[in-house]
């Protein structure tokens, strides 16, 4: 259950190249976890490759499942997204039903962590793949957050702006209504200042693409997030 305390997450996309040296700096950065996930190009080979390379370090590692073919044992946690604002039930519960039908007998349920995603950037890959309805008012987003917490009892509500920096005021409004469910924010963080701003609004801040674009800037987000007390 230590994911309930995470403040900073580095998301590694297994479909993207990263050198051993850069990966070591990410793993030794003081981040709380390496979350491995991406919308496309995720294969058993690249998921295993990252697992083996990250396991040399003491940081926890979690797999965010995007397809069933790439799931392998050995991760500390398996994060399972359900895109609550998808128009297609496939991404909300159908793939999940298929997975549980196939593997239900052998699943280690304690390792599975369900995430209620609300995708808010219409141009990102995950919005396009899942057919997410991103034209949402503040009331709509708050209703999804409450649905995640009060109705489905999900441990995590994830405001996903993948690729673009989101609205801190909206993130703060959602945080105000959540009592137990943890609020994850991810998307477009490129500086320590942005990371600190979102760390004031969300329980957990996820930093992804900037790892591949400007590693120095990415590393600075760890301290920026950790220095904010909620
Ligand atoms: C061996 C073992 C341990 C067995 C475990 C048993 C098992 C199989 C458990 C699975 C249980 C289960 C219920 C699985 C669900 C399966 C499934 C496929 C669900 C669908 C998940 C889903 C909605 C995926 C959609 C895509 C998504 C939300 C991905 C999250 C990652 C993300 C948004 C990354 C952003 O990066 P990207 O979009 O790639 O951005 P770039 O443009 O920067 O690349
Ligand atoms: O890659 P970025 O834009 O930092 O987003 C992080 C994460 O929320 C993606 O799922
Ligand atoms: Mg990707």
UniProtKB/TrEMBL annotation:
Pfam families: PcrB. SUPFAM superfamilies: FMN-linked oxidoreductases. It catalyses: sn-glycerol 1-phosphate + all-trans-heptaprenyl diphosphate = 3-heptaprenyl-sn-glycero-1-phosphate + diphosphate. GO terms for biological process: glycerophospholipid biosynthetic process. Coiled coil: none annotated. Pathway: Membrane lipid metabolism; glycerophospholipid metabolism. Its EC number is 2.5.1.n9. Its cofactor is Mg(2+). Mg(2+) binds at residues 13, 39. Keywords: Lipid biosynthesis, Lipid metabolism, Magnesium, Metal-binding, Phospholipid biosynthesis, Phospholipid metabolism, Transferase. The keyword Glycoprotein does not apply. GO terms for molecular function: heptaprenylglyceryl phosphate synthase activity; magnesium ion binding. The keyword Secreted does not apply. It comes from the Bacteria. Sn-glycerol 1-phosphate binds at residues 11, 158-163, 188, 208-209. Belongs to the GGGP/HepGP synthase family. Group I subfamily. Prenyltransferase that catalyzes in vivo the transfer of the heptaprenyl moiety of heptaprenyl pyrophosphate (HepPP; 35 carbon atoms) to the C3 hydroxyl of sn-glycerol-1-phosphate (G1P), producing heptaprenylglyceryl phosphate (HepGP). This reaction is an ether-bond-formation step in the biosynthesis of archaea-type G1P-based membrane lipids found in Bacillales. Homodimer. HAMAP family: GGGP_HepGP_synthase. This is Heptaprenylglyceryl phosphate synthase. The lineage of its organism: Bacteria, Bacillati, Bacillota, Bacilli, Bacillales.
